[in-house]
Amino acid sequence: MADKELQKRHKPAAPLSEPMRGIPGFFYDLKPAEPQGANSLQVERAKATFDSSKMTRFLFTNYLGGIVNEVQDVLENDETFSKENRYYMGRSERFLDRLKMDSKFAQLARELKWDDARRTMGSLLIDEPGTFSLHTGMFMPCLNSQGTDEQRKYWLGLAHNYRIIGCYAQTELGHGSNVQGLETTATYIPETEQFEIHSPSLTASKWWVGGLGKTATHAIVMARLITKGKDFGPHAFIVPIRSLENHKPFAGIMVGDVGPKMGFNCVDNGFILFNKYRIPRDHMLMRYSKVDKEGNYSAPPVQKISYGTMIFVRAYLVASSALALARGATVAIRYSAIRRQFTDPEASKNDEVFQQYVPQNPKLKCETAVIDYSLQQYRLFPIIAQSYALHFSGFWMLRIYMKMMKNMNDGNMDLLPEVHAASSGLKSLTTTIAAAGIEECRRSCGGHGYSLFSGLPDFLNTFLPLVTLEGDNHLLTQQTSRYLLKQLRKYKQDPSSIPKSDGSTTKYLGAMPTKSWTAAKTEADLQNPLILLEAFAHRSQRLVIELATKMAKGQVWNDSLIEMYAISKAHCQYILLKNFVHAAYHDKRAAANEVAPVLVTLCVLFGLSTMESELSEFVEDGFVSQKQTVWLRAQIKKSLAAVRPNAVALVDSWGIPDYVLNSALGRYDGKVYESMFEMALKEPLNVNARAHGDVVEGYEEFLKPLIQRGLSSDDKAKL
Amino acid sequence: MADKELQKRHKPAAPLSEPMRGIPGFFYDLKPAEPQGANSLQVERAKATFDSSKMTRFLFTNYLGGIVNEVQDVLENDETFSKENRYYMGRSERFLDRLKMDSKFAQLARELKWDDARRTMGSLLIDEPGTFSLHTGMFMPCLNSQGTDEQRKYWLGLAHNYRIIGCYAQTELGHGSNVQGLETTATYIPETEQFEIHSPSLTASKWWVGGLGKTATHAIVMARLITKGKDFGPHAFIVPIRSLENHKPFAGIMVGDVGPKMGFNCVDNGFILFNKYRIPRDHMLMRYSKVDKEGNYSAPPVQKISYGTMIFVRAYLVASSALALARGATVAIRYSAIRRQFTDPEASKNDEVFQQYVPQNPKLKCETAVIDYSLQQYRLFPIIAQSYALHFSGFWMLRIYMKMMKNMNDGNMDLLPEVHAASSGLKSLTTTIAAAGIEECRRSCGGHGYSLFSGLPDFLNTFLPLVTLEGDNHLLTQQTSRYLLKQLRKYKQDPSSIPKSDGSTTKYLGAMPTKSWTAAKTEADLQNPLILLEAFAHRSQRLVIELATKMAKGQVWNDSLIEMYAISKAHCQYILLKNFVHAAYHDKRAAANEVAPVLVTLCVLFGLSTMESELSEFVEDGFVSQKQTVWLRAQIKKSLAAVRPNAVALVDSWGIPDYVLNSALGRYDGKVYESMFEMALKEPLNVNARAHGDVVEGYEEFLKPLIQRGLSSDDKAKL
Ligand SMILES: Cc1cc2nc3c(=O)[nH]c(=O)nc-3n(C[C@H](O)[C@H](O)[C@H](O)COP(=O)(O)OP(=O)(O)OC[C@H]3O[C@@H](n4cnc5c(N)ncnc54)[C@H](O)[C@@H]3O)c2cc1C
Ligand SMILES: Cc1cc2nc3c(=O)[nH]c(=O)nc-3n(C[C@H](O)[C@H](O)[C@H](O)COP(=O)(O)OP(=O)(O)OC[C@H]3O[C@@H](n4cnc5c(N)ncnc54)[C@H](O)[C@@H]3O)c2cc1C
């Protein structure tokens, strides 16, 4: 059960409590048919075998919990940040609304002296990409890491106070993944000590740049540095875009918004073309590469520090994927516990609400909660397990990132290749899992999942670009595989290089290959996550060895991409399970908070269901036997049953505030149907019609002529 | 190459040919970097091994082709049906725009005396659900099948001329799938010979009803018939909703729109609540069930005719899923042939465009078309194969439906259970495949797939409800499985009942179970679709037998839903492959049009890739051996290579007009980048800004105060 501190996060007004204009009186007497959603959720919460507020504390920390409430209080009490109209707005309105929020947020953050943690929490709670997202998320970090001390002092000072608003312009209409193929040039003109930024073609136009379309005053532009006739490839330049006095774009550039998107419509992703546009020499970011006054280029010292940022961003994306799944699951699980459809007494035998009705008084109708249908559990409970799995690996990545950075500061780069490989594959795998999971959650809500009021469509559409951004999910797997192939070779050539530590993600590659899953001797062994982990290690090792063999026999790179995708996935599923095992068994805080048992249950479900979804790769070489697959499918059912009593508490544990969910189906209080109705009544088509005798705009022009064509007024009266 | 008749379907104006206000002159001198998209597509089309216009004729018929062009001509020449602004409109605008189109379309159809085929083609070309969709799609058919002759005459006459506009109100806020659980009542009042329609609770509100929100004048309402104190369950009633004189809703009802959705925003899906609302007795549809003046109820004679409509609708959905996939593939394949990213000479070795550049003149850059990366092929080519597979099964369903209806008219119901089972499972499987495939196509376009201009997001969002509508895809599989389990029992008890005809979809259930895939003796055997089909039959049979055994041992229904889902899928994948084999080998028109060889290639790819995606079910019982799985993966690569030269021609063959694609990436002429730019320039945020010195609305209010806070005008000038 959640404690008071957590309950505070869920405080939306009871729906339909205020009368609205133009609604007939009889409406206000209506209640949803029995049983009420609140009742169902209450019963669910009461039967949990662990304390969800302790789980919340285990997942995050007390510190974070405090910040949520603090920042949420500020935002919820300011009209500017109201989400009431979000689902009704078209593109232009939504952009403007967001601009207003960003402006107000900047002001608030300054006044309340919010630190970075609070600012980040603010964005998480506002829960929408913003027009300034790239300003804080890319422009400033890039200045920070690539600017000279002088540049940092000057530009970061301006940026921090929103004197200038920046964006990051790398992608072009013709090039995204292949950064080396960018066309925009920056040619050094020694005579004037300037760079001339130029777009030689239509496809050279920068494209997709967040905040550039309408907002930014400055862009960091990646352009091919050309000096003394030589092309040194893409480098970063600070380019002024719009006048600070009147916000007009400068002559010599053409800038605008790239148009409507699947989501992200509150952001002005933009394009920009340069026509021999000049900037001073000191606008090139010169911490590493430099061009002197004469135009002599000096290359950067070999530096891998910039990988750090990339790995940090990916750790963040893995953790975000966890929260995204958790959010999808929160809506789908709560709604599934409330939604009742058909009556199956066998399915409802453990449902107290059902038992209060049907058996005691067969005249009282009560249907089966859809959460009690085994197929619904099979679709949704693995998603709960995945959300926890992703969370533990996200935090693992953050920990290992910090360790790595510490090492690197001491000149030790050892961890980098391993962490880079894991981060590429994990970013790819976890964002793919989350995107699929959110959509499955949405579908599991039936028709109402298609309504924006469910909170899932808009959220999914905002999440979706993550499968493409920060490295396309298919491309990324080549990085991971390249590393694994290399390690395999190394371990073979020099067995002493095989890692000894269990902390290593690739130790398994050096192990003696096994032929069959001998550790799983009885069906009950499949409830042991360590035995499952062994199977994952075997599968990944086998796939890597097989590809290495093929390539040794001459299979070229391009013919190996399919296998590389599989290998990266296998390796990262192994990591996910490994980190989950660690959290459930070895994290002392889990034991202290009495959540270890439920985590073990969940960890097993994660292992089993992941194994089932990739079963052919475990079976095809004879590793997992026919008998073991039968056990597997049976044990999945057992795990689903074990998770069942804790399903609602497990999603409650994430503590995602109603303010974030913005969902009629996922509300903490279970008032699903009242909330759907209230939101529908506020639909502008309804509000406008109610203001005009409940007749729709367009009637006179488009419907009346059709309906009344050629009728006399006499006829009309008759109809 | 496509012939002239087909080329006519692709005639959008060249993009960027007309200057726009506020665009600097240098813009018009820019071209996309070489090579041009048109060039790439031309080379692709030239290397096809078959004639795509013949394939078009094979897939459809000459007759249909003629209608496309005829109707498209009318629509493309009428401003009302322009799609130019579709992607920029918000909800209310889009609804109004659609209402305008519907009104005009009704008028045109009347004037031009369009038959049903032309009207249907019109909706397909307009390519958007409409406010009148349910009027023609459900209201009229329902009147037709359930109304008495008198009712039909009266109401259909009005409906046909749009004197009234109808909708179909079954689903309620609380009940969708379980129709028997509907709450709305229709209580007969003998004194006044009326029914009193009433909503006893909030959840009794009708919900989701297309066209009800703002447009319809009448609804067919499904309500529980109560007469003489007895509840006879849901029956259909014609209920007047809005005045024909002024379109105001009548007193005693509360009606409105259910609010914004993931898609379908041009439709006014609506809710309605009834407060003891009276209608005359003769408004009950009384073809089968009747209530006389005194309130005596007479039940319908047992009649299975209504299954006919359902099966027809599902056949239509299977065929629509084919077209939907084809459309996704058209965009993704054309764009992949144009999009170039990174250089891999090995991958581009068969690319003539690449060869013209790099090897001959290494200074000319040319990157690898992404269609030449094996992973991209692995993602996309199976989708092409699926689109053909679904098409053949959709047409098979239509044929068998017609045969069944003919039989039924002769009193022979034999086909019904088999066709009903197949139609349930196929609707579920094919809409699921199509939804996944469209999204995969979208992602395979990288960042640009996220732009509405790609044509895919909007289209996907419109397609998505089909996984929930007309039977939720998960629920439906229970119908198919129930039938298969029953047949298995029957065949066991009475072997003489095992079908003899190869036309039967369940003959395999009665075959002697086999232990291993002996037919696949060599790797080359996997290129034989008949041998593949055998494996699909085995797998489905095994799964059905295993579930039957479990249930015989006492496994209850609810514990069997997971297996039922698997069985239904296995059975329907078998049907899809079976029908594909038929089309490629036995359809004389395929041979006559010289498309049989390419169809065989595609059929093999469909079989192999489907087998791979479900591999564990083929392998886990030892049927497919370890060696055979190795062959399988190798043969998939071979099939991908075999499809490669025909990829563009295979999507061209569907003949989907540019007017429908509405896609910058999928245009027939390959002018991808020009088109992206033109569409971006028309984005309202840009148009509005250009009208105001290129400064965004909201600048003065939200940006200026932030940027210029506390600055003197002196400072500003300096910045
Ligand atoms: C919402 C959104 C916001 C964005 N914000 C910004 C921003 O602020 N600043 C910025 O600079 N950019 C931004 N981008 C651009 C983004 O970084 C790119 O879209 C992304 O990197 C993908 O590149 P691409 O579009 O060129 O994909 P492509 O590389 O063209 O990919 C197309 C297809 O080809 C495949 N492919 C490509 N190369 C290979 C290969 N070698 N092997 C196998 N397959 C291959 C891919 O897997 C994919 O399926 C944004 C994009 C979006 C959608
Ligand atoms: C765009 C759109 C247009 C529509 N138009 C119309 C219209 O014009 N007229 C109209 O009357 N209706 C319309 N509908 C409603 C539509 O028919 C229903 O939404 C649909 O039938 C699904 O029912 P539901 O929403 O009650 O889903 P539910 O039955 O509530 O499904 C919720 C979840 O429970 C699961 N579930 C339910 N029962 C079982 C079971 N026995 N075993 C296992 N799992 C189960 C489902 O699989 C699903 O995952 C429309 C809906 C949409 C989205």
Automatic annotation (TrEMBL), chains A, B:
One biological process term in Gene Ontology: lipid homeostasis
Any one GO molecular-function label of the UniProt entry: FAD binding
Residue stretches in coiled coil: none
Active site as annotated: 470
Gene Ontology CC terms: peroxisome
Reaction catalysed by this enzyme: a 2,3-saturated acyl-CoA + O2 = a (2E)-enoyl-CoA + H2O2
Domain Acyl-coenzyme A oxidase N-terminal residue range list: 69-165
The protein's required cofactors: FAD
Domain of life: Eukaryota
Pathway recorded for this protein: Lipid metabolism; peroxisomal fatty acid beta-oxidation
Signal sequence extent: none
Ligand binding (FAD): 171, 210
Keywords linked to the UniProt accession: FAD, Fatty acid metabolism, Flavoprotein, Lipid metabolism, Oxidoreductase, Peroxisome
Ranges for domain Acyl-CoA oxidase C-alpha1: 307-485
Localization, UniProt: Peroxisome
Residues of the Acyl-CoA oxidase C-terminal domain: 531-708
Every Acyl-CoA oxidase/dehydrogenase middle domain range: 167-275
Family: Belongs to the acyl-CoA oxidase family.
Protein name: Acyl-coenzyme A oxidase
Gene: POX1
